[in-house]
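Practice problem 4.
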């Protein structure tokens, strides 16, 4: 079963999404989505060929008052989820 594609905030990302934002609010122009079936992991490729995990991106530009603790909490959640999939 293919796991759903979610952003850092836990929102589902539609596969026709072309713009996402990193933790600093910088635009990531999505050119491709990729799924690794053996680990159940999604990847996003941007217009420069860089690879991102969707759980490290936002669908909406984060506000400037987002706390560092909140960002760490989301990152930890992402790594725990990836670790469980790799078992």
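Answer key:
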């Amino acid at each position: 079963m293919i796991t759903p594609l979610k952003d850092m905030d836990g929102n589902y990302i539609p596969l026709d999404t072309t713009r996402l934002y990193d933790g600093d609010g910088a635009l990531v122009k999505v050119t491709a989505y990729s799924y690794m079936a053996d680990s159940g992991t999604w990847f996003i490729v941007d217009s420069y060929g860089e690879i991102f995990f969707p759980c490290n991106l936002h669908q909406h530009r984060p506000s400037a008052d987002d706390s560092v603790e909140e960002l760490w909490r989301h990152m930890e959640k992402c790594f725990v989820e990836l670790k469980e999939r790799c078992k």
